[in-house]
Amino acid sequence: MAVKAIPKRITTALVNSLGAGVTPRIGLEYMAVGRKDEIETLLNDLSNIGESGSVFRIIVGRYGSGKSFLLQIIRNYATDRGYVVADADLSPERKLCGTKGQGLATYRELMKNLSTKVRPDGGALPSILEKWTAQAQMAVIKENGINESDSNFFSLVGIKIAEIISSMDSMVHGFDFAKVMSAYWEGCRTGDQSKKSAALKWFRGEYSTKTEAYAELGVRVIVDDESWYDYIKLMSAFVKSVGYTGFLVLLDEGVNLYKIPNTIARNNNYEKLLSMFNDAMQGRTAGLGIYLCGTPQFVEDNRRGLFSYEALKSRLVSTRYAKDGIRDMQSPLIYLDRLTNEELYVLLLKVKDIHEQHFNYKSNITSENMIDFMRAATGRLGADELLTPREIVRDFIGIMNILHQNAEFTFDGLLSGDLFKTTHPADLEDDDDEAAVFEL
Description:
Layout: H1 8-20, H2 36-50, E1 54-60, H3 67-80, E2 84-89, H4 102-112, H5 125-144, H6 153-165, H7 174-190, H8 193-203, H9 210-217, H10 228-242, E3 247-252, H11 255-258, H12 263-281, E4 288-294, H13 296-300, H14 310-316, E5 333-335, H15 341-359, H16 367-378, H17 383-386, H18 389-405, H19 411-416
Parallel strand pairs: 1-4, 1-5, 2-3, 3-4
Helix pairs in contact: 1-15, 1-18, 2-3, 5-6, 6-7, 7-8, 15-16, 15-18
């Protein structure tokens, strides 16, 4: 299964990510295995979002089962198809709400990671605004048969921009959002870079006081911990009006909400999640998709998980008929099943080829070696249920690294000796390692 000419930049990212136990951000198409039903469901979601629908889903799987990998797959699919995507990992400092600006911190992370097809690595906000102003100017030129040298060109563009953003006045905080957009256009028209920078600062949620925002932009509100989600909805409406297909918000590490020790603070976050869920399911947002990843414990724990919040439990719990292997792929909860041994084997073949291409060599690892490795990994007590792609890939690339650096070792010798032991999930220290592990 030879891999065709993968750029060195991508093989470097893949090998380093796999060896370090983190999800690769690029090159996922060279490793994708299985998840056919899940990907088909998410692609159908994209189609619905592109038709001004809205989607909310929680992707559920234990550590290392593939949640983060699936998010990155859908992220790449979406940007390639003209969507704007914002992603963030939740953490003790980034939640949905909090008393120390944790919700605002999440918003800032989302805006920092705002991505499009031409800016897939984040930081796309300036290019989105530039596209908006350029479209308005081109529309004026086309409709009026004039060019930029005409004396009333900029006044006509101002009128056109006012028409574009007037639809946002009816949305919560829409008037101020539109006012800052007008300030950005004014900065473009006059060449005032400080005005443009101030507008970008406001959109990114970087103003700490209303006084500062009013002095620089003439608006009396700023993005804060309470209102950040309202601005996500405004941004969704805005990018749709600019011509993008839709807007996706990807939130990983949902387990950090489960870990909030204070019951009131935890329930406040679940209440915010409930409002996001209701907005999507009741069609109160257009062209917006929200995906959250979490473990089964985060969802199902009746003491601290989402199911401890009755309003969420009643909406998320699966139908009683989805049992005995029957899956409802249209449920808000998408549970990730374990990859089959055949799929894991194909995955290891891809990892082997990527490793060989990156280091420009041909390993001596045979099909029999790989089968022995699979038997060793899956033959442990309980491994059939507990083994995850992250663990088996990390172990396999580890043994490849050792063999590549030490010609005196053999695959069989490492596999059967004390120099190499496959990782058991129970060996992981605790759930706090979630943010740093590879989820394929």
